[in-house]
Write a structure and sequence with these properties.
By secondary structure, the protein is α+β, with helices and mostly antiparallel strands. The chain contains 18 helices and 23 strands. About 35% of the residues lie in helices and about 15% in strands. Strands 15, 16, 17, 18, 19, 20, 21, 22 and 23 form a 9-stranded mixed beta sheet that branches. A 7-stranded antiparallel beta sheet has the order 4-7-8-9-14-11-12, with no helix packed on it. A hairpin with a 2-residue loop joins strand 11 and strand 12. The N terminus is likely disordered. Bound molecules: zinc ion.
Length: about 625
């Protein structure tokens, strides 16, 4: 972080080590005899605000959140409960969902009793939607009856025999993955809506898990982990953090996958060949082990993994994976572009991991990555028309976006997407004891009642190149406001109450404004965007064009409704041909010119074909190009 000089009436100070507040939103809700308790050994230096203190204003994030909220509201509890009831021997005449919630799908229940509950709980925290909370409470109560009928604490929409197959290493899809989603959903219902029954239910499930895993030797359990494990480590850690029962932490660590952790702890990238989205939750669990035990090895694992994935294995959108896997050595991405690059769940889980690292140390690079992934891979992978979501975000040229069907897809990415757009309020602002971090430029309102402060951020970002923050204060308050200056902001300026400060901060830093803030104080931040390129690390002639934080996509021909819905990815090989781009090496973005009076719209100039470029997140039903093959213009 860069410090700049002091100026009259306000000082711009370097950040110093901060006091240690209690940990994260999970723990904030834990009370004993009316007092907050924490079981965290390593507190976050900076922490988010409870989501109920942040509300979104108009803009692309609100549009995504509302599409998600309407989708969640469209799911009837009886349909969500159908497979659980059937599995528990309770009659159900509801129409089952299709896709990954179909009655014969081995992952059934992952969405209906898992992601749905997490998403509803998070959405309630973000929006206060009481109807949705009531529906989710109904689902919890009815799942409670299913759990009672199944006895033993087990709760799932598929028979317990799936776990026998897992133990014997016979073919089975991912029962712990599914059970983790249900446990996380119940725990989120407890944390965000105060549903006590949900906590009792998840403790029973943890008890069942302890019995199952406790009957296996360490080596046998490691072989089970060779098949699957989901996010069991994380949810059991969180259950310990909420209850203080150390036993859950012990059970959590039975899910440590040794062959995965050991090379990471030794700073060796042996990620090639691994399935991506199942391994990121192992690292999120490692982050939680570090926080709950103080064991530095786990922090090393998490930080090395993050660096390696973000700097060596991620595309311009922030996404990672191809066909769900890492198939190459570090930094080799140019041969990986296809119809099934960058699974959406991976973006969700990497952003979740990023928040932990940021909590430990508020490095602006972490939020640069977060912003990149939010604006390029998360916005634009939910269909604003109906809340359906994508599985892969294809990055090979000439393909298009495919969305699930509302009731007959229910993929993993439908689940993580339902959660993502329910919690867009959770990272805009962080704080420590005496300063505020403005991480993201999103129209929103923040309440900070402990300080008697509230903040109104007004912006049409990214259509507007900056933001305005107005302070409301019951009485004047001395504090630092840290504004993130993104990596892409080469120039910029800030005004306080109309007066421009003589100094600014460098890209990828926080600009600290330290002063006594009073009601009506106004900060105007200007962050001019410029065109820049993001080439493939292993082939500089394959380039994505960016404008500020935004990946620009060449907009090609529209696709039909039939092509837009139902599949994980577009049909391999069905690509619209895209001409090479001719560019000057010294001026690599000179072929892209803004269109007058049309925000975020550009034309290609001097090319074989007329092309329009817009932010990738705005392309919904058109074929597109992200990575261009660029030929040098001969002199
Ligand atoms: Zn997925």
């Amino acid at each position: 972080m860069t410090a700049v000089a002091a100026t009259a009436g306000s000082t711009l100070l370097p950040k110093i080590a901060m006091a240690s507040p209690p940990q994260d939103p999970v723990v904030n809700t834990t009370q004993k005899d009316g007092k907050p308790v924490t079981y965290e050994k390593i507190s976050w230096r900076v922490k988010p605000f409870p989501m109920k203190q942040v509300r979104l204003g108009e803009g692309p994030c609100k549009i995504a959140m509302e599409a998600d909220r309407q989708y969640l509201r469209s799911l009837p509890p009886d349909r969500l409960l159908h497979n659980f009831r059937v599995n528990a021997g309770i009659p159900s005449s509801a129409q089952p969902f299709g896709g990954w919630e179909a009655p014969d799908c081995e992952l059934r229940g992952h969405y209906a009793g898992g992601h749905y509950l997490s998403a509803a709980a998070l959405m309630y925290a973000s929006s206060g939607d009481e109807d949705l909370k009531n529906n989710a409470n109904t689902v919890v109560a009815e799942l409670g009856k299913c759990q009672a009928a199944l006895k033993s604490g087990y709760l799932s929409a598929f028979p317990i025999e799936f776990f026998d197959r897992l133990r014997e290493r016979q073919r089975v899809w991912a029962p712990f993955y599914t059970v983790h989603k249900i446990m996380a959903g119940l725990l989120d219902m407890y944390v965000h809506t105060g549903n006590e029954q949900a906590l009792e239910m998840v403790e029973k499930m943890a008890g069942w898990t302890a019995g199952y895993t406790g009957s296996l030797s360490y080596d046998h359990m490691q072989r089970v982990l060779g098949t699957e494990y989901g996010g069991m480590g994380e949810v059991l850690c969180n259950l310990y953090a909420v209850t203080g029962k150390e036993y859950y932490l012990e059970v959590a660590q039975r899910f440590d996958k040794k062959v995965f952790f050991d090379p990471l702890a030794a700073h060796r990238d042996e990620l090639k060949g691994l399935h991506v989205n199942t391994h990121i939750p192992q690292v999120i669990a490692a982050a939680r082990y570090y926080e709950l035990t103080g064991d530095r090895r786990y922090r090393d694992i998490a930080e090395y993994f993050w660096e390696e994935v973000v700097s060596e294995r991620s595309y311009c959108t922030g996404g990672t994976s191809n066909g769900e896997s890492w198939n190459t050595d570090p930094g080799k991405l140019s041969t990986e572009l296809g119809p099934s690059t960058t699974e959406c769940c991976c973006a969700y889980n990497m952003m979740k991991l990023t928040r932990h690292l940021f909590g430990w140390s508020p490095d602006p690079r972490l939020m640069d990555y977060y912003e990149r992934t939010l604006f390029n891979h998360r916005l634009g992978t939910i269909n604003p028309e109906d809340g359906t979501m994508m599985y892969y975000l294809p990055l090979a040229s000439g393909y298009w976006k495919t969305f699930g069907k509302p009731f007959d897809s229910m993929w993993c990415c439908t689940g993580t997407g339902s959660e993502e757009y329910s919690k867009l309020t959770d990272t805009i602002y962080f704080h420590d004891d005496d300063s505020l971090y403005v991480n993201l430029y999103i129209d929103s309102h923040l309440e900070w009642p402990e300080k008697g402060l509230s903040f109104r951020q007004e912006t049409r970002f990214p259509e507007e190149q900056g933001t305005t923050i107005t302070v409301s204060a019951k009485k004047p308050a001395l504090m630092a406001i840290n504004l993130r200056i993104p990596y892409w902001a080469q120039r910029g300026s800030v005004k306080i109450n109309g007066s421009e400060l003589p100094a600014f901060s460098s890209p990828a830093s926080y600009l600290t404004l330290n002063r006594t803030w009073k009601a009506g104080d106004k900060i105007e931040l200007s962050l001019p965007m410029e065109l820049h390129i993001d080439p493939m690390p292993d082939d500089q002639t394959i380039q994505a064009a960016m404008y500020g934080p935004l990946v620009l996509a060449g907009r090609l021909d529209p696709v039909t409704k039939e092509m837009s819905y139902g599949d994980y990815e577009p049909k391999p090989g069905d690509q619209e041909k895209v001409p090479d781009i001719i560019a000057e090496p010294a001026r690599p973005t000179a072929w892209i010119e803004p269109v007058d009076n049309q925000a975020l719209t550009f034309n290609a100039v001097g090319q074989a074909k007329a092309l329009t470029l817009v932010p990738l997140y705005k392309v919904i039903h058109d074929r597109y190009v992200v990575y261009w093959k660029v030929d040098n213009k001969s002199a």
